[in-house]
Amino acid sequence: MAARKARKPKVERTVHQQISEIEHKERQRRGKISLVFAVIALLLNILIVPGIGSVIAGRIRSGIIQILLAVIGFFLWLTVMGNIAGIFMLIVAWVWALITGINIVKDSD
Question: What is the mean pLDDT of residues 81-85?
Answer without folding.
Answer: 88
